[in-house]
Amino acid sequence: MRLAQHSPAAERNSASIWKRLHALLAESGEALEIASGTGQHAACFAAALPGWHWQPSDWQDDAFGSIRAWAAQGGAANVREPAVLDVRATRWPTQGPAFKQPFDLIYCANMLHIAPWECCAGLMQGAARHLAPRGQLVVYGPYLEDGVPTAPSNLAFDASLRERNPDWGLRRLQDVRLQARQAGFALFQRHAMPANNLLLVFRRTP
Fold first, then answer.
1. Which pLDDT belongs to residue 4?
2. Residue ranges of the alpha helices (H) in the chain?
3. How do beta strands 185-193 and 197-204 pair?
4. pLDDT of residue 2
5. Contact predicate 77/52, CB 8 Å
6. How many Cβ atoms from other residues are within 10 Å of residue 78's Cβ?
């Protein structure tokens, strides 16, 4: 595992996210992961879903060696070669052949708060182009909710993100839902997760 990078957050949240994914997904399908990072989620979920093909991606290729290493260690032969993908681009992936097959799942964890706000619209619009008619967009991370008290840890996290980069910060759930609605999606499920995170499931509007 010389090339594998380690994310403590991904290690902590994999089990709770997998519990929700397992309840949502069929036995087989095609998945696209946005912002795969170290590749720990890709390896974990793909190994647990042998009937699925898992396509990891990230906006730069710095961690692609780590994604490959985690998949190899986990015996996840169904993890495809990672792709360079900037969600703001009108063509996915950004480099290499365009995706041809529709995806049954597009999964994105912990990206929206460490990316410019326009990445939210890019994610939703890209999902509209690439999700199968009954596909699901699953987004995980911390959010601000109108009328719901924000945990002090999330407030501190938001302040630290904005100090590092003024384009970053926790997003209002209502703003995310608006971007989803403009791309033809509605919030189907909202799950409270450990450490004050949410798992959101979007489906196409009937």
1. 86
2. 8-24, 40-48, 64-73, 118-130, 152-164, 173-182
3. antiparallel
4. 55
5. no
6. 17
Question: Which DSSP category does 51 fall into?
Answer: T
What integer pLDDT is reported at residue 132 of this predicted model? 98
Q: What confidence score (pLDDT) does residue 206 get?
A: 83
What domains, with CATH codes, occur in the chain? 8-116+130-204 (3.40.50.150)
Closest CA to 123 of 84, 99, 87, 83: 87
Question: Which residues fall within 8 angstroms of residue 198, CB to CB, at 6 or more apart?
Answer: 140, 141, 142, 143, 173, 190, 191, 192
Give the pairing type, strands 57-58 and 171-172: unpaired
Predicted local distance difference test score (pLDDT) of residue 1: 45
Of 107, 97, 101, the closest CA to residue 21 belongs to: 107
**Cβ atoms of 140 and 193 closer than 8 Å:** yes
Rounded to the nearest 5 degrees, what angle is found at the Cα of 103, between the Cα atoms of 101 and 109?
140
Contacts of 63 (CB under 8 A, 6+ apart): 5, 36, 37, 38, 39
Please give the DSSP secondary-structure letter assigned to residue 87. Answer: T
Q: Which residues of the chain have pLDDT under 70?
A: 1-2
Distance of CA 141 to the CA centre of its chain: 9
